[in-house]
Design goal:
Blueprint lengths: L10 H6 L17 H7 L11 E4 L11 H19 L6 E5 L12 H11 L8 E4 L16 H14 L12
Parallel strand pairs: 1-2, 2-3
Helix pairs in contact: 3-4
């Protein structure tokens, strides 16, 4: 928890977005590519069969100036790079939109901006599904405990996009 997308991305994907980041000794998990190198890359050497990924992240980007605009590049680029490295360009990718939260400002503008401007550009990629979490908020908890709603929505999007099942999957928007 609390990690930025940059820590899960390759340096190449970040560079393609013009992202420049540094390591913060106070929060080393935020160093560019640190978690990618430790937790993703070891599985790319295969052989490994996979049909997709799920992603629940984005809140740690809030409060950073221009976060949504930067995320609109770095997030889809990370997806594309992971698919390339796993040699599976058709791998499903499902993500959960940010829930309601009070920490990004009283108006909630930061969360709404991240959902619409930061996260949703990834949905334009092939076989990318999403699940909204904004309609099942738990007050000011960025991680609402009722995960069954988003898990069912992500499962439906995977069934439709990856496995060709005729099920409705688009979350309320």
């Amino acid at each position: 928890g609390g990690t930025p997308v940059e820590s899960w991305s390759t340096l190449e994907s970040l560079a393609s977005c013009g992202a420049t980041h540094y390591c913060d000794e106070e929060r080393p998990q935020g160093c560019p590519s640190r978690l990618y190198n430790a937790m993703i890359h070891p599985f790319t050497v295969g052989p490994m069969a996979l049909s997709g990924f799920t992603w629940y992240q984005g809140e740690s980007q809030l409060g950073v100036g221009g976060a949504a605009q930067s995320y609109a590049c770095t997030f889809p680029r990370m997806i594309t790079e992971w698919r390339k490295l796993f040699k599976n360009p058709d791998a499903f990718f499902g993500f959960v939109q940010l829930a309601c939260w009070c920490g990004g400002g009283a108006s909630g503008d930061a969360e709404a901006e991240m959902r619409s401007l930061g996260q949703m550009p990834a949905a334009l990629l092939h076989k990318v599904g999403y699940a909204t979490n904004a309609d099942h908020c738990d007050g000011c908890n960025i991680h609402p405990p009722a995960k069954q709603f988003v898990s069912n929505r992500l499962a439906d999007s995977a069934l439709a996009l990856q496995y060709g099942k005729d099920v409705p999957w688009r979350s309320p928007t």
